[in-house]
Amino acid sequence: xxxxxxxxxxxxxxxxxxxxxxxxxxxxxxxxxxxxxxxxxxxxxxxxxxxxxxxxxxxxxxxxxxxxxxxxxxxxxxxxxxxxxxxxxxxxxxxxxxxxxxxxxxxxxxxxxxxxxxxxxxxxxxxxxxxxxxxxxxxxxxxxxxxxxxxxxxxxxxxxxxxxxxxxxxxxxxxxxxxxxxxxxxxxxxxxxxxxxxxxxxxxxxxxxxxxxxxxxxxxxxxxxxxxxxxxxxxxxx
Amino acid sequence: xxxxxxxxxxxxxxxxxxxxxxxxxxxxxxxxxxxxxxxxxxxxxxxxxxxxxxxxxxxxxxxxxxxxxxxxxxxxxxxxxxxxxxxxxxxxxxxxxxxxxxxxxxxxxxxxxxxxxxxxxxxxxxxxxxxxxxxxxxxxxxxxxxxxxxxxxxxxxxxxxxxxxxxxxxxxxxxxxxxxxxxxxxxxxxxxxxxxxxxxxxxxxxxxxxxxxxxxxxxxxxxxxxxxxxxxxxxxxxxxxxxxxxxxxxxxxxxxxxxxxxxxxxxxxxxxxxxxxxxxxxxxxxxxxxxxxxxxxxxxxxxxxxxxxxxxxxxxxxxxxxxxxxxxxxxxxxxxxxxxxxxxxxxxxxxxxxxxxxxxxxxxxxxxxxxxxxxxxxxxxxxxxxxxxx
Lengths: 238, 390
Ligand SMILES: Nc1ncnc2c1ncn2[C@@H]1O[C@H](COP(=O)(O)OP(=O)(O)OP(=O)(O)O)[C@@H](O)[C@H]1O
Ligand SMILES: [Mg+2]
Known about the structure:
The structure holds 2 protein chains of 2 kinds. Chain A is an alpha/beta fold. Chain A has helices spanning about 50-55, 80-90, 105-115, 120-135, 150-160, 180-195, 205-210, and strands spanning about 5-20, 20-35, 40, 65-70, 70-75, 90-95, 165-170, 200-205, 215-220, 225-230. In chain A, the strands form 2 sheets. Chain A has a 6-stranded mixed sheet with strand order 6-7-8-3-9-10, with helices on both faces. A 4-stranded antiparallel sheet of chain A has the order 2-1-4-5, with helices on one face. In chain A, a hairpin with a 2-residue loop joins strand 4 (about 65-70) and strand 5 (about 70-75). In chain A, helix 3 runs parallel beside helix 5 and helix 4 packs across helix 5 (about 150-160). Chain A starts with a strand and ends in a 9-residue tail after the last strand. Chain B has 2 domains: about 1-50 and about 240-385, no CATH class; about 60-230, no CATH class. In chain B, a hairpin with a 6-residue loop joins strand 2 and strand 3. By secondary structure, chain B is α+β, with helices and mostly antiparallel strands. The interface between A and B is medium-sized, with 27 and 25 residues. The structure holds adenosine-5'-triphosphate (ATP) and magnesium ion. The site of magnesium ion has 4 residues of chain A, from helix 1.
């Protein structure tokens, strides 16, 4: 199923300082992800979904073990190198959308391309294309405050996708959305996954999301308790 | 470029708060530029007035003369040095004889200095020509301030009592032949200008002088035995010192406003770093380094300085431009304070002054923006993304 491996997690342990001692949020996780996966970490609150996603996203680092993303060992990256990795290869989608409030839809989507020093023409083309993917070409001049939650999250998807990253990490992307919007967004991501071969990794406990996953990794107390490939997509609307 | 754009948008988004900071800062700008420009203008005018009316291209003092020691005036004169004879004959140096005296206008005694000068002199703007009047009394030229203090008017007579070189007192009648208007109070208050030869006779000091004023045309003053040459550096010292004292008042205002604006910007920045953690986390997630985010926030704060400069320009350029053209009328009281000051000061707004002020404002604003922004580097991005406090 995977063309080539883009993430290797080997014996990952994450501990957080707590009180006088340490709290183990992730213990001994070993996993691999290939290009084009549509996978998700599922599990109850506090099981470590966000923590593992943050480490893959180089926003946090392992306490023990190794996490290799795009041939880079996350634990060994400097701030600058981690920023470069995120900038070039990773897209993020957050529960709270995290759009830049002072920017228009267009500018929010354009932002990652500015960091990549892309030419204005190439930027414009990519931004309009990304907005087409999420069906928001008519809102390019709007500000985030003028959009609905679903529309905001679509802008966030366009922002994550605009540079055609290898990997998109989405932490509870539907938590603030109603059922219709959730489905709409997941369908958009699924299409992008299929057409652009972008790898998506979710962290979620939302059944609406889980239904779309092609690989489901269950976490409990920081351990992987199940890692299953879901063959048939159960695309049932509620 | 991204930093500038983002910073500008954010500042605009911050609304009233931003504009309040910017306006206070623009006041600081305009006030200091006005104040310094005013003092620079005054300084230049005072210098020009003193050159025109009092010191020419510099003054030779008789070695025994010290205007700050009243007792030396009596002895501090002598024959002009041979080195200057040629210049004196060519009207390029003008001897002045100074003597202590008293006048009795309206019966009250007032001690004054008699200044003997050649009525035909051309180095100073003093209107000395009327001193050539062929009258029995001593023709006298005084300034308007002196006229006001003594109640003397043109054509009035006044008794002058002086002590000659032999320490004997003598008295005679003088006639005010001319009242002059000058910005230079030094040649006005307490000064009576009389014909040189009359004073030399009165003092039994034939051919002698106390000071010799050089023409501004002479750029390298010759050395003269028994005489000390006083250059501009020395002669303008007092007026410079005075203007410097005046500049402290304006600077205090500037520093106060700059401090207030700086504090407000610092506060806004602290608040921004705190309130916009989520945005900071997002920027980091999108691939910005922390250093770059710190820079964005610093630029955002520093932009207050740029906006302030623009706002200051909007009202400052017409306002100050008008003042530079029409001048700033000085209150009459300034005229009586014995300082060199014109009725109207034309402020001098130099490029250096504007650039210097801009630099000071920009550096201050950048520093107060950078200090809070530095905290961003310590922010944990995973928590910042969620908007949590770390
Ligand atoms: N910075 C931190 N310091 C201390 N403990 C932390 C930190 N981040 C996470 N934890 C702990 O690690 C555990 C896993 O947290 P994580 O956020 O990964 O859970 P999650 O599976 O994403 O939960 P949720 O579904 O509620 O988002 C939790 O018990 C949490 O309290
Ligand atoms: Mg979570």
